[in-house]
Amino acid sequence: MTPIQRLITGLVLCVLVMGAAVAWCGSVARHSRHLAITARNDLLRCRQLEQELRQWQEKLSTQPKNPVDQITLTQRLQEAARIARMPMTQLQLVRPMPLKRLGQTDVMEQDTEVALREVTLEQAISLCIGLAQDNRGLQIQSLRLTSPMPPSREPGERWNVNMTLSTCVIQPLSRNHKPSRGPK
What pairs with residue 116 in β-bridges? Predict the structure, then answer.
């Protein structure tokens, strides 16, 4: 091979190596751009979640700090029953359940079981609307209608109603409480 052929071969090899390097740099740049876009989208999503979290914290800060006590709940039920034109004798059960913590948060949920006997559908719906419109954090978690056994002697269609009322309360975790890290 002549010196000129060696020089041309060397130049061709240099051009090929430089082309491969440019192609590799382009690939790295595209990948880096993709990672940057993903990171930006993740940051935007984190900011959105942070804003939602702050809104939830603000909502929770307006919730009562203590559970709805039995007297207050009974008063609210009595008022809703009065509006529904339902005799208090049809209110058979008001049983608060133990508080349960929602995850590792300061929020606890207080459920209360309520049972109504032999009420009309209109009375049941009016009572539920009265409780829901109260707007003090009390929610109807579940509602079940069953036909009374034996059938009611009262005129019109009658139902037994079982419902679970729920409210959230703020109760900070104790200072000694250490969140579990899951199975080891």
Answer: 91, 161
> What pLDDT digit, counting tens, does each position of 51-104 carry?
888 887 776 665 555 545 566 777 888 888 888 888 888 888 888 888 888 888
> Hey, which residues does 117 pair with through a beta bridge?
none
CA gap 98, 115 in Å, rounded: 18
Tell me if 118 sits within 8 A of 90, measured CB to CB.
Answer: yes
* Of 169, 177, 121, residue with least CA distance to 145: 121
**How far, in Å, CA of 94 to CA of 116, rounded?**
9
pLDDT in tens, 115-137: 999 888 899 998 888 887 765 67
Two structure tokens written together for 63:
């919730």
Q: Are 116 and 141 in contact (CB under 8 A)?
A: no
Domain spans of the chain? 1-62, 70-170
Measured from the Cβ of residue 80, the count of other Cβ atoms closer than 10 Å reads 20
* pLDDT tens string 138-184: 788 899 999 887 776 666 788 899 999 888 777 777 655 555 444 44
**Nearest residue to 101 via CA among 180, 183, 175, 170:** 170
What is the CATH topology of the domain spanning 70-170? Alpha-Beta Plaits (3.30.70)
Find the angle CA(62)-CA(66)-CA(72) to the nearest 5 degrees: 100
